[in-house]
Specification:
The model has no long low-confidence stretch (mean pLDDT about 95). This protein is α+β, with helices and mostly antiparallel strands and about 325 residues long. The chain is built from 13 helices and 13 strands. The strands form 4 sheets. Strands 2-3-4-12-5-8-9 form a 7-stranded mixed beta sheet, sandwiched between helices. A two-stranded antiparallel sheet has the order 1-13. It has a two-stranded antiparallel sheet with strand order 6-7.
């Protein structure tokens, strides 16, 4: 079934108000959830919404709390999320990084004690919409084995990089695992296999079966040992800059994920490089002129498919899992 974008916002807003959000903050969060789904990132939009409500019920998320700046170093600031809603905490911090970028050319906000931000790409796009290059990442609970290990000690720690472009920004939004757990869950709900191996089954064999990977909790780091190394360094930088929890310390809090650390960087690219638009178009044209493996399949730049999905879903409604949508309507 497909749900119109405005209707999805209204339903999300209604439920969030019921669970303690004031109207304005509820609507901002509802728009972020709906926009994630609009771009086809259902795993961190409509599909994730019931779990967020469970975190509200467990009091991991404090809907009345907002983030606050606790220390400033010019273009770098340290903020505390006060366990507020991850979506709005992240939006506020990226807004502040953008303000600093407009002032200094670059702005960086390190955030501690916050909650899951859903789709990190939302904040890369936020920076690009303001004419900035956006870079941000988060650590997570221990949900991935280090390379060569079988037990979970590191996080999949998503990293986002976004460059502004008219009619569809360029963006990479990727966990340090081959697939995020949200993407694995979405594949399971859709009853399909992953396109390439995404982890190990219970017998230690590489697998494309999302249900088997969920059972083993052994997701595959991108680039094998390289993804493992990136995960550890991203975690350490976020924890050091924010003076917040590392993945190790998030794991000590329990099985659920909260009180994580994040970094938001904005660079005022229009101020620094006025010709950035020409550079972007030149690179895209060069990539699209590549010799194709399959003549029927177009070479896409990063985030082009999501932009096309947004246009389709805005026109025709957002596809949703009927069981999940019924859960939301019953909240």
């Amino acid at each position: 079934m497909r749900i119109p974008y405005p209707q999805m916002i209204e339903e999300f807003t209604r439920v969030l108000v019921k669970y303690g959000f004031e109207e304005k903050k509820a609507r901002i969060n509802a728009e972020i959830f709906a926009q994630n789904s609009l771009d086809g990132i259902y795993s961190h939009g409509v599909n994730r919404f019931p779990r967020v409500i469970s975190y509200l019920q467990k009091a991991y998320i404090k809907p009345e709390n907002d983030p606050e700046c606790i220390q400033s170093f010019g273009a770098l600031e340290k903020w505390d999320g006060n366990l507020g809603m991850g979506n709005t905490n992240a939006k506020i911090c990226m807004d502040r990084a953008i303000e600093l970028a407009h002032q200094f050319g670059i702005g960086c906000v390190a955030l501690r004690n916050t909650n899951h931000w859903m789709r990190g790409g939302a904040y890369g796009l936020q920076a690009a919409n303001a004419g900035c290059i956006g870079i941000c990442w988060t650590n997570t609970q221990p949900n991935m084995p280090a390379w060569g290990a079988t037990d979970r000690r590191i996080g999949n720690n998503p990293l986002i990089m976004c460059v502004p472009k008219e009619n569809g920004h360029l963006m990479v939004d990727g966990a340090m695992a081959q697939f995020s757990y949200g993407a694995i869950e979405a594949a399971k709900l859709a009853g399909r296999q992953l396109p390439v191996p995404g982890g190990f089954d219970s017998n230690g064999n590489l697998s494309t079966d999302p249900a088997e990977i969920e059972k083993s909790w052994r997701v595959l780091p991108i680039g094998y040992w390289k993804g493992s190394g990136f995960s550890i360094l991203l975690d350490l930088i976020a924890a050091c800059l924010s003076d917040g929890n590392s993945t190790y310390r998030v794991g000590q809090l329990g099985e659920d994920e909260y009180a994580v650390s994040q970094v938001f960087i904005a660079l005022d690219v229009k101020r620094i490089t006025p010709e950035n638009g020409r550079l972007v178009d030149e690179v895209i044209q060069n990539v699209k002129e590549s010799v194709r493996v399959d003549d029927e399949k177009e070479i896409l730049y990063p985030n082009e498919r999501e932009y096309q999905t947004r246009l389709d879903n805005m026109a025709n409604g957002i596809p949703v899992n009927e069981d999940i949508w019924r859960q939301i309507l019953a909240m």
